[in-house]
Design goal:
- The protein is mainly α and 132 residues long.
- The chain has helices at residues 2-25, 32-41, 50-57, 64-74, 84-88, 103-113, 123-131; strands at 81-83, 120-122.
- The chain is built from 7 helices and 2 strands, in the order ααααβααβα.
- It has a two-stranded antiparallel ribbon.
């Protein structure tokens, strides 16, 4: 019983730490309540719509500088592009416990943002997708 409780406390502490880290990444850019609402709206597989998400999370109303900051967080490998694998894990940038996008959702998302057809999304394409 003691071991189980200790493991439970460690797990809850790790989850709380991850949630704090996730929120800190977007601190000063996005509102925690908006992030929660946006994630809730696309919790079910197949329900992700980038336009709805960007509006709900508050990105559509942000400045180009804030959009660039968000892009830099999402560009996990720091390649200056968001590739398909990073898009698949897009929601997890906002909450570690969020689901991965399905392959179909990821492909639609990539197609929406990849205006030059190179198979990845640059910061300018990302900004245009958010504002579009």
């Amino acid at each position: 019983m003691t071991i189980y409780l200790s493991m439970l406390i460690v797990n809850q502490t790790a989850q709380t730490s991850n949630q704090r880290r996730d929120k800190m990444a977007f601190a000063g850019i996005l509102n925690d309540a908006d992030i929660t609402a946006a994630l809730a709206a696309c919790k079910a597989e197949g329900s992700f719509d980038h336009k709805v998400f960007f509006t709900k999370v508050g990105l559509a109303a942000k400045s180009p500088a804030d959009i660039q900051k968000v892009f830099e967080i999402i560009d996990q490998d720091k390649s200056d592009f968001v590739e398909e694998e990073e898009l698949k894990l897009f929601l997890q940038n906002f909450s570690a416990g969020a689901r991965a996008l399905s392959d179909a959702e990821t492909k639609v998302f990539l197609k929406a943002g990849d205006s030059d057809g190179d198979g990845k999304i640059g910061v300018d394409e990302f900004g245009a997708m958010i504002k579009g």
